[in-house]
Specification:
28% of the residues lie in helices and 28% in strands. It has 192 residues and is α+β, with helices and mostly antiparallel strands. The strands form 2 sheets. The chain has an 8-stranded mixed beta sheet with strand order 2-1-3-4-5-9-11-10, sandwiched between helices.
């Protein structure tokens, strides 16, 4: 009479690796869908899909055909983002805590679902949660990832509270870049 439970456990043990593999594949599929939601389909459909792991390594989930890469960034909400090569290098450098971007080439990135950032008590945007900073939600936007000098450009360094406009995020740091609060879903992008 103990044969049935033993066979049940044995069958379960044999099926466990397949179940775990299936679960991982579903997890990758869900991640790919979320990552692709960072940019319009005209960009994300042929973009590479990667995951930035907690240890800073990058895992490729899908090869790309158009020079863009999509993934999520650990901004407090695992927000989806798609960027060209220079933009992706910039983002990976920032979210793996490098002193400065890997490249000084300008890049572009789309965050069609919006994102999150840290704001200090004085309203400055900072790189992390220290000194009483709070998390703020960003509307859908796109970014020019290149050094922008707030002193010479005259551009603001704080987002408009109405969620529209342009400003320099992380002004005065190697990660200063232009944030454009315009939903990429509403942009008329050229076909690739």
């Amino acid at each position: 009479m103990r044969v049935a439970p033993v066979l049940g456990v044995a069958a379960w043990m044999l099926l466990l690796p397949a179940a775990l593999h299936s679960q991982a594949a579903e997890s990758d599929k869900a991640y790919i869908q979320r990552a692709m939601s960072g940019a319009p389909q005209s960009i994300s459909a042929d973009a590479a899909i990667v995951r930035i792991e907690k240890d800073g390594s990058v895992t490729s989930l899908r090869e790309g055909k158009n020079g863009f890469t999509c993934g999520t960034i650990d901004d407090g909400g695992n927000s989806p983002v798609c960027a060209d090569q220079a933009g992706w290098d910039f983002l990976v450098s920032a979210f793996t805590h490098q002193d400065k971007p890997k490249s000084d080439k300008p890049g572009i990135a789309y965050m069609m679902q919006g994102g999150r950032h840290w704001e200090s008590k004085s309203g400055d945007i900072v790189m992390g949660p220290g000194d009483g900073a709070t998390m703020a939600k960003e509307p859908p936007h796109w970014m020019l990832l290149a050094p922008f000098d707030h002193e010479t450009s005259g551009l603001p360094t704080h987002p408009n509270p109405n969620g529209v406009g342009t400003y320099i995020m992380f002004a005065g740091t190697p990660y200063a870049h232009l944030m454009v609060y315009q939903n990429p879903a509403n942009m008329k992008l050229r076909p690739s």
